[in-house]
Design a protein that fits this description.
73% of the residues lie in helices and 0% in strands. It is mainly alpha-helical. Helix 1 packs across helix 2, helix 3 runs antiparallel to helix 4 and helix 6 packs antiparallel against helix 8. The radius of gyration is 23 Å and the shape is elongated. The chain starts with a helix and ends in a 9-residue tail after the last helix.
């Protein structure tokens, strides 16, 4: 087992985060092939059924099985989180590399561009795009991915410039490594702890953004299962059937919490300075 994985699983937060994220991922994969019922199948005679058999979490106002909707919504959530994470990674690494490893006028131009883009709220951009092109998960993925890619670039750019002045990077440059080779071999691995935290935070906020936009009607379409859409449908009846609102709320909360904790745990597991600092804890001697 790799050392970083042993460190990750040695803390309760790491184990909890891995368990939650693995459970969401497994649920998303299983929902592609099987759900207890068709998530979009309505049954007026069976509406507002209490949790039990065969509807383990009950049904909503149209008779749809809530467990099936939660499972199908996990697939939507996983798609948004992974898609936004990939786009944020590409945008963030590209802008950070341009802002740290190029000529002065390019670096300054990228810095100004990042400052301009980061001034626009991600959710506002997604709502404006959705108003023009219609509500879609792809709109959420691209809006959140680009928005948080800019945030990643702003945080990782100073780290890249700091690591760029290290002796091993200068030695690699002297040995004939190109800028791209230095970036992939030395720079990116050394900023990985900072990058991982930002990426996990971006994926967690992507989950919240998708749920929020779907709740407002700007995210998933009516034919796609979404925790935000389910929450919007059920919250109107919270005074009569309060338990039904709990399930999508728990799913969103656990997913966001798991992604945030996973980022923190991965940072502690991959950052050698944190490991070294924890191993060199000084215990003062007791003076008699």
């Amino acid at each position: 087992m790799p050392r970083w994985l042993r460190v990750l699983l040695s803390s309760w937060t790491g184990r909890f985060a891995v368990l939650v994220v693995a459970l969401i991922a497994l649920t998303a994969v299983v929902s592609v092939f099987w759900t207890p019922f068709d998530p979009m199948l309505t049954d007026v005679r069976g509406r507002w059924a209490a949790p039990g058999w065969p509807h383990l979490l009950g049904t909503d106002g149209t008779g749809r099985d809530i467990l099936s909707l939660i499972m199908a919504g996990a697939r939507t959530t996983a798609f948004v989180a992974v898609g936004a994470g990939v786009i944020a990674t590409l945008v963030g690494v590209s802008l950070a590399a341009l802002g740290a490893l190029t000529t002065r006028w390019v670096r300054e131009s990228v810095a100004v561009l990042v400052d301009i883009l980061i001034a626009f709220p991600v959710l506002m951009i997604a709502m404006m795009i959705s108003a023009v092109w219609g509500g879609s998960l792809w709109v959420v993925v691209f809006a959140v991915g680009i928005g948080f890619g800019v945030s990643i670039a702003r945080v990782t750019r100073p780290e890249l410039r700091r690591v760029q002045q290290s002796d091993f990077v200068l030695a690699g440059r002297a040995s004939g490594l190109s800028t791209g080779q230095n970036l992939t071999r030395h720079l990116l691995p050394n900023i990985a702890p900072v990058f991982i935290v930002q990426l996990s935070w971006s994926m967690a906020v992507a989950v919240l953004a998708e749920a929020g936009l779907s709740y407002l009607g700007f995210g998933a379409s009516l034919t796609e299962a979404s925790w935000g859409t389910l929450l919007a449908d059920l919250q109107r009846y919270i005074g009569v059937h309060p338990l039904t609102v709990v399930w999508p709320g728990i799913a969103i909360t656990l997913t966001v919490l798991g992604l945030n904790l996973l980022g923190d745990a991965l940072r502690e597991a991959t950052d050698p300075t944190l490991t070294r600092r924890s191993a060199q804890v000084h215990v003062p001697e007791v003076v008699a």
